[in-house]
Design a protein that fits this description.
- By secondary structure, the protein is α/β, with parallel strands linked by helices.
- The protein has a single domain, classed as Rossmann fold.
- Helices cover about 40% and strands about 15% of the residues.
- It has 6 helices and 4 strands.
- The protein has a 4-stranded parallel sheet with strand order 1-2-3-4, sandwiched between helices.
- Helix 1 crosses helix 2.
- It is globular, with a radius of gyration of 14 Å.
- The chain starts with 15 loop residues before the first helix and ends with a helix.
- The relative contact order is 0.14.
- It comes from Emberiza fucata.
- Keywords: Cytoplasm.
- InterPro entries: AB_hydrolase_fold.
- This is ABHEA protein.
């Protein structure tokens, strides 16, 4: 995610509008048509503004305990019609419960909890993660 970890700061990452536009540009440059957007942790700052503005461009959304869910109102989430798999590890007792509390307002969501996994549940339980993700992808149109 630009501006996080060891990546250099990026001016566009300073506002939600800038982050949404950045992600929109990336998807356009890659020529992606209705991708499934997977958003772990810090990438939520980019994915959530994009989802709320352009969710109709996505075939699906998979938030994995993303940051920034509290920055938006329940009504904003309720307007999104993108099929969503809310995925997290049951040992992520910090960010996951907050994300679930906010993201459960997405009308077309389902939840997958990976037992014995922490915040990076895809690293802790990769087989369970892939099983949940592939199950979700198979049911998308």
């Amino acid at each position: 995610t630009p501006g996080y970890g060891d990546s250099p700061p990026v001016e566009v990452a300073l506002t939600a509008q800038g982050r949404r536009a950045f992600l929109d540009r990336v998807l356009q440059e890659l020529g992606m048509q209705r991708p499934v957007l997977i958003s772990p942790s810090m990438s939520g700052r980019f994915a959530l503004p994009f989802l709320l503005a352009h969710g109709d461009q996505l075939a699906g959304f998979v938030p994995i305990a993303p940051v920034g869910t509290k920055d938006f109102a329940a009504e904003q989430y309720r307007a999104v019609q993108t099929p969503t798999l809310i995925l997290y590890g049951d040992r992520d007792t910090g960010l996951a419960p907050q994300a679930l509390q906010n993201l459960q307002h997405l009308p077309k969501h389902r939840v997958a909890v990976l037992s014995g996994a922490g915040h990076a549940c895809y690293l802790d339980k990769p087989e369970d993660f892939h099983r949940a993700l592939l199950g979700f992808l198979r049911q998308l149109k």
